[in-house]
Amino acid sequence: MNDPATTRHQEHFRTAEIATASGYSVQQIRDLERLGVIPPAERGENNYRRFTHQHLLALRAYRGLAAAVGPVAARRSLREIRTLPLTDAAANIGSLHTVLAKERDDVLAALSALRAIREEARGRFDDIEDDSMSITELAGALGVRPSTLRFWERQGLVAPERVTSLAVRRYPPASIREARITAALRVAGYRIPAVRHTLDAIRRLDDLEDLDNPFDALQERLTAIARRTVALLHAGTDIARLISPRTRDRNLCGEYG
Question: Is 119 found in the same domain as 89?
Answer without folding.
Answer: no
